[in-house]
């Protein structure tokens, strides 16, 4: 009986320690990737300033060709919104709305993954001679949920590869059209 009591006390102390440590972890998850595209910002901008255009290079839609997509708001710029729904766990269900748009420079979006949480995404276009460095970023507030904070440590591994694939797709799309 003492042995079982020791195991239970040890488990309780371990759980409390993990919860306590979680509050020392970052309160935000951030992911960012960049690529240089052989085109000026004004050629790239339309592909990041419209949810309909992002469909052409999205790294997630190839995972589930049956993903249901719907759009609302204007065709591009602030208010342009994408809603998606998929049974595939790596695609899921959610929405993304453009919340800020500076022509040929930057686009900001609000992401809503339903019960999975919310995030902000951004595209920054920085001219470099005849080329443009495109940076795709993601920030999510993890709140006070201990499990979210531990999962936040893995966000770069989970999303980073997708961002790299998406930027590579964008580069190929823009450079073949030029």
TrEMBL record:
<dbReference type="InterPro" id="IPR023393">
    <property type="entry name" value="START-like_dom_sf"/>
</dbReference>
<dbReference type="InterPro" id="IPR019587">
    <property type="entry name" value="Polyketide_cyclase/dehydratase"/>
</dbReference>
<protein>
    <submittedName>
        <fullName>Polyketide cyclase / dehydrase and lipid transport</fullName>
    </submittedName>
</protein>
<dbReference type="Pfam" id="PF10604">
    <property type="entry name" value="Polyketide_cyc2"/>
</dbReference>
């Amino acid at each position: 009986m003492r042995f079982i009591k020791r195991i239970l006390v040890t488990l309780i102390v371990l759980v409390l320690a993990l919860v306590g440590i979680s509050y020392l972890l970052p309160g935000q998850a951030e992911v960012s990737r960049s690529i240089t595209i052989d085109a000026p910002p004004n050629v790239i901008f339309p592909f990041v300033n419209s949810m309909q255009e992002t469909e052409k290079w999205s790294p997630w839609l190839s995972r589930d060709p049956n993903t249901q997509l719907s759009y609302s708001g204007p065709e591009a710029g602030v208010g342009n919104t994408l809603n998606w729904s998929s049974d595939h766990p790596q695609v899921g269900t959610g929405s993304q709305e453009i919340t800020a748009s500076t022509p040929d420079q930057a686009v900001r979006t609000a992401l809503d993954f339903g019960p999975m949480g919310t995030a902000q995404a951004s595209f920054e276009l920085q001219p470099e001679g005849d080329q443009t460095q495109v940076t795709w970023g993601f920030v999510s507030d993890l709140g006070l949920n201990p499990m979210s904070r531990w999962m936040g440590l893995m966000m770069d591994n989970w999303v980073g590869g997708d961002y790299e694939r998406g930027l590579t797709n964008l580069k190929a799309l823009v450079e073949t059209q030029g």
